[in-house]
Amino acid sequence: MAHRERTDRHGRLRAEQRDVDGIRVVTLRGEIDHDVQDVLSAALLTESGALPPRIVADLTDVTFMDSSGINVFVATHRRVSGAEGWVRIAGAQPSVLRVLQLVGIDTVITCHATTEQALHCDL
Fold first, then answer.
1. Which end of the chain is more exposed for a tag (fewer CB within 10 A), N or C?
2. Residues whose CB falls within 8 Å of the CB of residue 30, separated by 6 or more in sequence, listed in order
3. What is the torsion angle, in degrees rounded to the nearest 10, for the CA atoms of residue 22, residue 24, residue 25 and residue 28?
4. Residue 98 in contact with residue 66, Cβ under 8 Å?
């Protein structure tokens, strides 16, 4: 299980990646907005720069997300769906989950209470 961490230049978003049974788990901490969307996009990629087919984004420690983050998740979802993969969101705080629900992302990308649930659900 490899761990990798990236931080944007302002220290507002940290991302750590690990692989669990072939699933990329990306643990995010901080705020997701326009200034850090490139950090988020890069965090979802493998070390070779490829997009893994199955991704769980752990948002437990994300305190804010605007449309920039939503756009990254939607674009990632579209790309992996074309390869019969998926993106799942786990642990979103109520304020972040509300944003996801308001724009309907939770109907496209499944949202789970925990990373464990996201890893082990059968869709």
1. C
2. 11, 12, 13, 14, 36, 61, 62, 63
3. 170
4. no
Helix (H, G, I), strand (E, B) or coil at 110: strand
Percent of the chain topping pLDDT 70: 88
Rounded to 5°, angle at Cα 53 from 42 and 104: 80
pLDDT of residue 49: 64
Taking every pair of Cα atoms in the chain, the longest distance, rounded to a whole number of angstroms, is: 38
What φ, ψ does residue 24 adopt, rounded to 5°?
Answer: -80, 120
| Closest by CA position to 59, among listed 110, 11, 22, 96 | 96
